[in-house]
Amino acid sequence: MATMLEYIKTILQKVSFDKKLFEKELKKAIGMLIPEEIKQLRSWCYEKFSSIYLSILNRCFSRGRFSG
Asked: What's the CA gap between 39 and 35, in Å, rounded?
């Protein structure tokens, strides 16, 4: 059974062609996950998408408790 985190990763990969949609889904994902999952998502996102969406990642993950 896939976890919510795995499901979110799939969604983000599918919408990564569209900047606005990617940011919308990322914000929604951050709101749904627990802090430990957010840390995992953050690492994965920076690994996969920092070359194209660095500013979005920085903006979405800059909310205090998620940094680090």
From this structure: 6
Distance in angstroms (rounded) separating the CA atoms of residues 22 and 35: 20
Q: pLDDT tens track of the chain, all 68 residues? A: 579 999 999 999 999 999 999 999 999 999 999 999 999 999 999 999 999 999 999 999 996 554 44
Q: Give the chain's length.
A: 68
Alpha-carbon dihedral angle through residues 10, 28, 30, 59, given to the nearest 10 degrees: 100
Q: What are the helix (H) ranges across the chain?
A: 4-15, 19-32, 35-60
